[in-house]
Amino acid sequence: MTAGTVNEPQKDVLEAFRRGDQDALRLLFEAHKDRVYSLALRFTGDGTVAWDLTQEVFIKVFAKLAEFHNQAKFETWLYRIVLNACIDQQRRNKRFVPFEKHVKHIEMSEEPPQEKSYIRRQVTEAVQAAVARLTPKVKAPILLRYVEGLSYEEIAEVLGCRAGTVAARLNRGHKILARELAGLRGVMQ
Amino acid sequence: MRFWTRWDRHVTDNLSAYGDGMLPAQESARVSEHLKQCESCAKEYDEVRFGAALASHLGRASAPEGLWSSIERGWEEQTPFSLSAKQQPFWLAIRRPRLAAAGAALALGLGVVALTLMRFGLLHRANRPSGVSTGTSVGGPGTAPPVVSTQFDLGAYLEPLRTASPEESYRLVSSASPGFVTVAKQEALHTAGLRALEKESPLPGYRLLGYRASRVGESRVVQLVYGKGNEAFSVFVAPRQLRFSYGKETCVDTKVLGIRCQKVDCPFQKSYVFGEGRFRCALVSKGLRAEQAAAVMRYFISAHRGSQED
């Protein structure tokens, strides 16, 4: 994808909103709900918190939409709002212990071959939990790369840093994940 | 010699970019050559590739159903002008300070004129609708009572609990009721009449995990979520004039360890309505024991005791 470019249908939606068509908000929500919810879910590792954050982000986006101009990149703007909301939420709740912090250990030998999809789901849950524990600096590029599929340059634009910095943070994130989830090597092969 | 130093330099910082094909050709060739000769970097590269393979399990998740309705309610609550804005051009929405200030000044001016006219008995007579006798109205000066919602239905919030597995139920109980948005903790506690309490949670081991609020008619309702491990319960706190309802379920009067309350007559949850002073509360849980439910009710009742309605 071309991160952040305002494609034509979206431009229409923004124009409609400026004309006073409030149904445009619903269209904007439909176009971006999975994007926002996924980032919030992967960031926090908690569906309930992700629900709250998605709600908070869209209300913020609607409130600020009048300030958004087409020449800016909408997705870039949106990603920043989502990530900032997630970081703020983490700061607010850092004293609280998440409901599920335990990584489930999966042994290949215990699972029959027909349960591949089950294993995949368990691996995804374990990865999501490990990613949720990363620091925001490392977590943000990991999520933009693997949830949103952005290039290094696109991530750098969202985060306001150099592509080299993105590469270094991704490197660090990959190593942490590999060490934390070393027990999954057998399952992944 | 310089050539050898360059090719000999470890490449650990570039491994992710190399694996993703993000390095310039010359640098990529250098890393490739180095990995053939350096066991330590090759090992690290293997680790980075494994980390990347793990991360690739992350992907888009589908947003759950029901999000839009809660966003819409939250949006309308936050922007009181947004409802009228639906029928107005965007530029008329009062967001610009000058326009807002002009509107406020105009309203103030009209108010002063109206008060002056009322003082001289002019507006009062002029405003009286034809055919309505103000002299015989029951209960006072003939002003229409404000429109207030007297019921808060928890049915939509509780419905998914009906079929939830035990693992899912704690998430559902702790999830936001439609229209509720997270607010500042102090604000939530203050609205719920709990500001002065020493203990943050009514049950040992449980923590206050969520604090949300919503507006129901003229009233503000707070949802407080408490959790421990995989167990959670929510307490909704509302002004006394608001009555809770539970969709199709009905409430029956009961006593739990001496505490007078109403129990929701429903097999898939344990919920109680109780209240003291100017507050009414609804405790929603999947399986709190009677003594735990009583402790929660006691906690809120003691906080609200004496807070009589004005």
Plain-language structure description:
The complex is a heterodimer of chains A (189) and B (310). Chain A folds into two domains: 1-99, Rna Polymerase Sigma Factor, Chain: A (Orthogonal Bundle); 101-189, Winged helix-like DNA-binding domain superfamily/Winged helix DNA-binding domain (Arc Repressor Mutant, subunit A), CATH 1.10.10. Chain A is 68% helix and 0% strand. Chain A has 189 residues and is mostly helical. Chain B is of the alpha+beta class and 310 residues long. Chain B folds into three domains: 2-55, no CATH class; 64-94, no CATH class; 151-304, MucB/RseB, C-terminal domain (Phosphorylase Kinase, domain 1, 2-Layer Sandwich). In chain B, 39% of the residues lie in helices and 20% in strands. Chain B has twelve helices and ten strands. Chain B has an eight-stranded antiparallel β-sheet with strand order 2-3-4-5-10-9-8-7, with helices on both faces. In chain B, strands 1-6 form a two-stranded parallel ribbon. Chain B starts with a helix and ends in a 6-residue tail after the last helix. Residues 1-6, 80-100 and 120-148 of chain B have low confidence and may be disordered. The chains are: A mainly alpha (189), B alpha+beta (310). Chains A and B meet through helix 2, helix 3, helix 5, helix 6 and helix 8 of A and helix 2, helix 4, helix 5, helix 10 and strand 2 of B.
What is this structure's SSE topology?
The complex is a heterodimer of chains A (189) and B (310).
Chain A: H1 8-18, H2 23-44, H3 47-64, H4 74-92, H5 116-132, H6 136-146, H7 152-159, H8 163-180, H9 185-188
Helix pairs in contact in A: 1-2, 2-3, 2-4, 2-5, 3-4, 4-7, 6-7, 6-8, 7-8
Chain B: H1 2-8, H2 15-19, H3 25-37, H4 39-55, H5 67-78, H6 82-85, H7 97-119, H8 122-127, E1 151-153, H9 155-158, H10 166-174, E2 181-182, H11 185-191, E3 207-216, E4 219-228, E5 231-239, E6 243-245, E7 251-256, E8 259-264, E9 270-276, E10 279-285, H12 290-304
Helix pairs in contact in B: 3-4
